[in-house]
Design brief:
Layout: H1 2-11, H2 22-26, E1 42-43, E2 51-58, E3 62-64, E4 67-71, E5 75-82, E6 88-93, H3 95-107, E7 118-121, E8 126-132, E9 137-142, E10 154-160
Parallel strand pairs: 2-5, 4-10
Antiparallel strand pairs: 1-8, 2-3, 5-8, 6-7, 6-9, 9-10
Length: 166
Amino acid sequence: MRRILLLALSLGYLGTAFAHGEAMRANKEARPISVEERAFGREGDPKKVARTVRIGMADTMRFSPPELTIKRGETVKFVVRNHGKVKHEMVIGTLEELKTHAEMMKKHPGMEHDEPHMAHVAPGKSETLIWQFTKAGRFYFGCLEPGHFEAGMVGQIRVAAKGDKE
């Protein structure tokens, strides 16, 4: 506990309330890039971004665009903009992982988490997410705020292997 308090003091977080991963995001640049490999890729290196994709989120429970095609190995910087009046998020994963996480969020709506494949966006704000898609396949992105995923706030990412037609 003492270490946590000292860390909070040194990072200037004492007396500041953070929700849904804001404390981690506030110090994101200070941490090293994760090398953890997931079924849908890994955290991307900002110095190796191949392109920027803008994703819009709305209170109609939809993403714009709802479908993307990305080349295997490509590092993408997502600029995620919340055009609505309620908080939204973009979480990348397999469909099964997103469904499981959405169920967990319904049971624990105040749950705090911050992973490299997530962007939590306040109304009227933007966040960035950098991801490298290392495996070909069909993956998804969704808003896992309680009820949003179930209302259809989900999109698809097709990661094309080399030689595939887009």
